[in-house]
Each structure stands twice: as C-alpha cells, then as structure tokens.
Amino acid sequence: MYQDILLHVGGRWRAAQGGKTIDVVNPATEEVIGTLAHASTADLDEALDWAAKGFAAWRKISAYERAKIMRKAADLLRERLNGMAALMTMEQGKPLAEAKVELAVSADVIDWFAEEGRRAYGRVIPARQAGVYQLSLREPVGVVAGFTPWNFPVSQAVRKISAALAAGCAFILKGPEETPASCAELVRCYVDAGVPAGVVQIVFGVPAEISEYLIPHPTVKKVSFTGSTAVGKHLASLAGKHMKRVTMELGGHAPALVFDDADLDLAVKHLAAAKFRNAGQVCIAPTRFLVQDAVYEPFLEKFVAKCEAIKLGNGLEEGTTMGPLANDRRVAAMEGLIADAVGKGAKVRTGGKRAGNKGYFFEPTVLTDIPGDARVMHEEPFGPLALVAPFQSYEQAVAEANRLEYGLAAYAFSSNAAKVAALGADIESGMVTINHLGLALPETPFGGIKDSGYGSEGGAEGLEPYLITKFVSQTGV
Predict the structure, then answer these.
(1) Whether 34 contacts 1, CB under 8 Å
(2) Model pTM greater than 0.90?
(3) What is the pairing mode between strands 385-391 and 365-368?
(4) Any catalytic annotation for residue 307?
(5) Helices (H), 26-130
(6) Does residue 249 carry a catalytic annotation?
(7) Which of the following is catalytic: 169, 183, 283, 307?
(8) What is the span of the domain harbouring residue 387?
C-alpha cells in the first residue's frame, strides 16, 4: 500500500534531481515502510520558477471558476478517503478512525474556502468630489511558502493551501518528512482536480535548509508555519528581515478549568477525548487540568478511569483507541518531563512509562501534586500527559490559566451562566471552548495569541492573510 513519495514540481511527480531520499518509519512497528524524495536547491529553484508562472495564470482565473476546481478537489479527497487514511495511520500512528475524521473535515475545509473565495469583496468609498470613484480592491498576495507538521499531515496543510488558492495565490508546501504520503495525496487531489502547473507544489528535505532558502527568496511573498514556538519565532524573524507576511500557529499549553458546579461526567468525557486524541500530539490539547477543590477527587477518579480504559495499539487494528507517539524523540521527551516532575515531588496516578518494547507506544499518564518549578508546568508536553491540580477560587483558576506565555486554546466547564460569560472574557487565549468541544471547525477562526502565534487559519478570517488591499481613486477625465 505504501509507495515511495515523490516531489511535485511544475506539474510533474518526480524524484529529486540529486536522487537523494529519506526513509519513512512506521511508528507502530519501527519498520521502514518507504522513502521520500529529498529536494536540493536546484529542485527549490525549479519550484520557485514554476510558482511564479502558476501565480500569473491562477490569479487571472475568476474566483467563481477557482471555486469549481477546488470543490472538485474536495470531492476527490472524499472518494480517496479510505486509502489516504490507511497511509496516514501507517506513517503517523493515529487510529484509522481518527485519520478518517481528519480527512473528512479536510474536504469540508476545501469546500468552505472555495465558497469564501467567491466572497472576497472590495468596497466603494464615497468620494468628496463628483465624478471620482474610490475603490478598495482585494488582490492575492502572491506566491506562498507553507511549512506543516507531522501530527495532522492533511488538516494542517489543507487550511493553508485552500485559503491561498481561494485568494488566487500559488503555494509551495514543505511537507512533513515523517508523514509525507497522506500530505502528498492531498496535493494530488488539487492537481487531479485541474489546478494549473505550478500553483500547488510539494517538496521535502531538511526543514531548516528549505525554510532558510525559500523565505528570503524574492518570489515568495508570504509565509505560513505551524509548529513549535521556538522554530516559529526564528522563521518569523527571518521573514521580518525581508518584509514578508507571516501566519504563525505555534505551541500551546492549554488550561482546562472545571468548576464545582460543572457536569463532571460531561467534563471528563470531553476532556479525555481532547487530551488523548492523536496520543496527545495536538497543539490545542488540554494539558493543565485545574479542578475546584470540592470536585477534585471525584473528577480525578473518573478521569483516571477513562485513561485506563484506553486501548493502546497499532492504529490499523480494530479496537485501538490510541496509537503510538510519532517518533522516538517524543518518547524520550515524555520520559524526561515525567522523570523531572516526579523527582521534584509529583505523583503518577496512572501510566507514566513506555508501553511494550516495539513501537513508540506510551501509556496515557496523569500526574498530580506537580510543583511549580517542574519543567512540564512550563513546557508543552505534546504527548498523552495530563497535569491535574486543585484550585479554590475563580480568580486563582484564571490566574493560573493565564500564567504562561502560551495562548492558543483553553477549556472550561461550569453550569453558572455569569461565570461562563466571564470566562470567555477573562481567559487570555485565541480560542476558548466552554462546556463542549467547539474548536477547529472550517467556518470558525483558528489561531493563538502571545507565544502561540498570530493570524487565523479558519473561517472568514482565514482568507485575510492571503489578500492585500489596493486603493484606487479614479476619475473619467
């Protein structure tokens, strides 16, 4: 099922010019399942030349016709969903059911931006003189370089590509080297739908080398990145030196506030699902579980039971509810964070160690009594690790929720209407969901504040970074 992955440059699927390849490893078995082409500078130069040509052609196609092509791409994605889901599970590890959901939502994202692009309106500004027309026009920014991670190889890329194409831009995607096949198949959907050569291209290689070549290049007018805060700051700095627009969706350390008037069963159900989806390798996953004193022990008991009911296994096997971590680096990171916390006094309520001796499996883990100086209280764990701590007052909970420089997502549960309204205003986060899981829908904004980045990748706001405003004042004489 898994074939070697090629570059897509200038309308052709091909090997790298130098013939270099990178191995792809199945995280559930630790076996090499294929290779992908490793782009050289010559490959990047060709992609840049074609992107300029593709942009010149694509921007002249009406938004109405662009939408038709994009909707065909969405239909192709739905037709190919089962095969693409199997590839994703093999290379990334998530259960097959989760892969299918990711792909289904990704097709909806393409449809959403296809229609939103048809509504990128300008406006007429009333003039001070007769016979003068003042126009505010919207135009595509140009060629975009996008950099996407391995945790959601299709849904992270589809937001960027679809918004760019809807606006009339061309896109060079630096796909994830650890999960290249499903991402490449997404590009194939656009290509097979009829997107002209050069408009959507995909390359792979050493991330730092590709970003440091593409971002300063004069052909590239905008950069979109999803990944860690440290790398995002570096790329934003590099883009800033060349006055390039950027969208940054970076790390998180999401708080989850559970008040004593909350529906505990509902809170446990939603928070466990959000925490352990994709083995916790989710930028918006809740990490700091702040539970009011009166319900702390009942919540903890119910949450631990949910954790212990999770079935670890190969994502392709029936019944698996959590797959492996994506690579051995994540295992080492989890072990290091837990050892540091326990060494400083934290208690392991369940899990806490690697599972088995083959594959990168790690037990769903709950820590309590975590001291404030533990690394995990400041660093994003990006794994199946929940930190549970009690609080006494509303003010104490909000202060802890806002303590870190992260501000991507936050969760809260309360049945008090006044408290629910206050939480939406008081929590410092780009996204807040209260009493349900309501994040990451195609029609809603998706993005963070503070060290979690800036810019939105969903909803009407997701189109804005790919458009520039041009003012034209004209008269007939």
Answers:
(1) no
(2) yes
(3) parallel
(4) no
(5) 41-58, 63-79, 81-92, 96-117
(6) yes
(7) 283
(8) 254-442
